[in-house]
Design goal:
By secondary structure, this protein is an alpha+beta fold. The chain has a single domain (about 5-115), classed as Nuclear Transport Factor 2, Chain: A, CATH 3.10.450. It has helices at about 5-15, 20-25, 45-55, 115-125, 125-130, 135-155; strands at about 25-35, 40, 60-70, 75-85, 90-100, 105-110.
């Protein structure tokens, strides 16, 4: 296993063990993060996002696989199983991740998942009917952004 694979394995092992500090340590101070819900986060925001998600995801279970190194990064697949707190619905989110790594730290992290599949699981009928629309996607992004800002104001 090369250094990039080791870093990403360390990251997901920390995630699986709900070790927030271990996850946060894998990021550069210039890191960025984006996924279909949390977009264009800076290093402080991404560190806070993982802390918030781990603390609120009481029953969250994470599995990861297919960690592959590239010349200046890595890719991986991970699955998150949890109860969506806003609705109490069970979610199995399947995510593909891409990382840019410099000096042994993650500088760019992009997670990709099917928002419509996620919204059907997490929001039920609303997600099934509106999960494909930009209206619902933007509403969920705004709620996530507001929740992260509130979490950061209380904890950082």
């Amino acid at each position: 296993m090369n250094a990039n694979q080791e870093l990403i394995t360390k990251f997901y092992t920390a995630f699986k063990n709900k070790d927030v500090a271990g996850m946060q340590d894998c990021y550069s101070d210039q890191a960025t993060f984006s996924d279909p819900v949390f977009t264009d986060l800076n290093a402080a925001q991404v560190r806070a996002m993982w802390a918030m998600l781990i603390k609120s995801g009481k029953d969250m279970h994470v599995e990861f696989s297919a960690v592959k190194a590239t010349e200046n990064g890595a890719t991986a697949h991970w699955d998150a199983h949890y109860t969506f707190s806003a609705t109490g619905r069970k979610v199995w989110n399947q995510i593909d991740a891409q990382f840019l790594i410099e000096d042994g730290k993650i500088v760019q992290h992009r997670d990709h998942f099917d928002f419509y599949t996620w919204s059907k699981q997490s929001l039920g009928l609303t997600g099934k009917l509106l999960g494909w629309t930009s209206f619902l996607r933007n509403k969920v992004k705004k709620q996530a952004s507001d929740k992260l800002a509130a979490y950061m104001s209380k904890n950082y």
